[in-house]
């Protein structure tokens, strides 16, 4: 198997730091993914809230290993993993997956950040890491779709720290300069679409003030050759067993086993990320 991206999309990713793949999962597959993620007790039992500066929350669940659930199989499918291996230049492993669920009228915002702004502190030496966000609902400007800064992965890693409120984000002074120079793209997606993005791509999202739910699932990968040097709550290199693309459809409504997935109910920041961007520790 090989990447699902054509040469133009591949070049888009290199230039922009992201590429949107329409219909990464088809209607039947998406229906299974959505229902499994909505109903799986493994996910429901591990919901936690991530609040924005005004107190509105994104409901989240996070798991370290993909397992045999229908969404675990999606994260292990050739179409996703082979594409990641092409983007990251070699074997990858599953670093974690997460549900980011914004409920109608009350889903919280995310401040500008790079994923490598966090993952750097987990002992990952190289930014050989990337994610794919899969839309479980339609995502648009009204319900808080992901926004990405085109080309921002070329800026390198930006300092991250605690921002007003409780979120850790990228240095706002630098971000303000970057968005003067580069385009902010609203990644509006239909259910089943997938946005592949580089770990240094700046991204954020608005609150969901609309009557429409915005649930998305993110599958995150690290290059096998980038095994972290620090122990962290995300895994060291763990070989990933790929599955054929039809495994998703064939799985039916299959849930997680719970112990294999390693669900987590919190995502604690390391001490380096418990300081403001000016370096002041926060209580
Ligand atoms: O779901 C969102 O809008 C943003 C999620 C995100 O940026 C993250 O999990 O790092």
Cα-atom Rg, whole angstroms? Answer: 17 Å
Largest sheet: 8 strands, antiparallel
- CATH architecture descriptor name: Sandwich
Topology-level CATH name = Jelly Rolls
What would CATH call the homologous superfamily? q2cbj1_9rhob like domain
Commentary on this structure:
With 283 residues, the chain is an alpha+beta fold. It has a single domain, classed as q2cbj1_9rhob like domain (Jelly Rolls), CATH 2.60.120.620. Helices cover 23% and strands 25% of the residues. The longest helix has 13 residues. It is globular, with a radius of gyration of 17 Å. The termini are far apart. The model has no long low-confidence stretch (mean pLDDT 95). It binds 2-oxoglutaric acid.
Write the layout of secondary structure elements.
Elements: H1 7-16, E1 18-21, H2 27-39, H3 41-44, E2 48-51, E3 57-63, H4 70-76, H5 78-88, E4 92-102, E5 110-113, H6 115-119, E6 129-135, E7 146-149, E8 160-162, E9 168-170, H7 172-181, E10 184-187, E11 194-198, E12 203-205, E13 214-223, H8 247-251, E14 263-264
Antiparallel strand pairs: 1-11, 2-3, 3-4, 3-14, 4-13, 5-12, 6-11, 6-13, 7-10, 7-12, 8-9
2-oxoglutaric acid binds at residues 98, 100, 110, 115, 146, 203, 205, 216, 218.
Short description, anyone?
By secondary structure, the chain is an alpha+beta fold. Helices cover 23% and strands 25% of the residues.
